[in-house]
Amino acid sequence: MSLHDTPDETREQRLHPWSWLFELQQHLQQFLLPLVALLFFGSRRQDGEWPFHLVTLAVLLAMAGSALLQYLTYRYRIGDDALTVRSGILERTRREIPFARIHNVVVHQNLLHRLFGVAELRLESAAGNKPEAQMRVLRLEQALELERLIRQGGTRVPLAADSTQAAPGTLLELPLPELVRLGLISNRALVVAAAAIGAVWQVFPREVAEDFVRDQGRQAMGYASQLQLDSVPLAGTVAVVLLLGLLLMAAMSIALAIVQYHGFRLSEAERRLTVERGLLTRLRSSVAHRRIQAWTLREGVMHRLFRRRQLRVDIASGGGQEQEGRALKELAPVAAPAACDALLQHLLPGVQWPPAQWQAVSMRGWWRLCLPALIIVAAATALGCRQFGAWGLLPLLWLPWSALNAHRQVARMGYSIDPQRVAIRGGWWSRWWRVAELDKLQALRLDRSPLDHCFGTATLTLDTAGALGSPPLRLHFLEAARARELMEHLGREMARRRLRW
After folding, report:
1. Is residue 145 within 8 Å of 3, Cβ to Cβ?
2. Which of 116, 159, 134 has its CA nearest to residue 1?
3. pLDDT digits (tens, 9 = 90+) for 367-398
4. Nearest of 290, 287, 272 to residue 329 by alpha carbon
């Protein structure tokens, strides 16, 4: 029975009867390591180990009791324009969440959720690192119906009338070939492998890890010496091993991309964008157009090799959801440049994209971007010459590349401002474009460093409500007079416009 079929739409409702099981699962995930340690140390004591088991049992019973109380005391009620949530047994809490203040709606389903036909619903606003409400768990149809109700701002539409509304329009889908490209571009397996090595290095004592690496290296060298290969066959063997390793990493990266982005679909309905993705764990996240604060296009070396780009957005939402990876951030994990441009043009209809002309910045003092590399290279060269003599001069070979990179970065920097938006571009080896509507700007800052005073330049920073993306909305290497002129112009535009977020 859906939300609209209840005899009294304003009565309080419970969570799904199995919600306590999923709450218990969350508790077990949080306290898994302490419980394993308690069982491990208790099992090693042959005399009097039963107190450890009793403590473990008591902890498990407390977790189960807490999960059951969460189910018994949690209530929610759907009003005309707000959602009311009551919880707690000793300390009762009541939260009123207006539908208009909900910025992001996330429907989360892992394998256990899908087995029971339920879903977790998270309602996020612009403030705080925690969701305004986290309903763990609802029936899947209830979660989707509540998501639709929030999307419509609390307007209850009869089912017959709702069935005549236009279906959400699909803006982008990622078939299997695109997921393969995404895996090769992102190279996620390398990140996972590096994280695993770091975790092992932290968990095991340093001496144990070093001894393991040393022993394995000696065994490999001994095996290679027994083969008695000449230099050419040995080099070929090493090349084959490296090639197999690269192929394995590529295959793992593709597999990770398929698991994370399988069934990716970006759709639009009623001025809200919705993204669905995931093979094992399904995520459905939606956000209103007005909550998007900035747009970012990225194009790395691998992107250009496959002729692809990435489109991300910054939304007015808490930072904690970014860490959990559930907030809507990627509108196009990978897509052709023309498709990304078409998405921007569609979602920002009053904006011309790409801009007809980019304004260049000052090239004076471009070498300032080389200063960090110059300091590091100088220190590495001094240390290398002390340890290895003339071979220590090798780090100096990095300076020409650093100078070329700095010059090309400043040469490609640019900006474009029209009556609707401000756009900034940068990068050379890895390129990016940032776009923000003038209606979303809420603060401006003009900075001048000692080097800026020497070269007559300045930096203008634009701040929006909740746009925490990288790189920041910042104009570097502006002529000082031009920076002040832009600041006055944008300040007047901000004063006469209403902030929309």
Report:
1. yes
2. 159
3. 999 999 999 999 999 999 988 888 889 999 99
4. 287
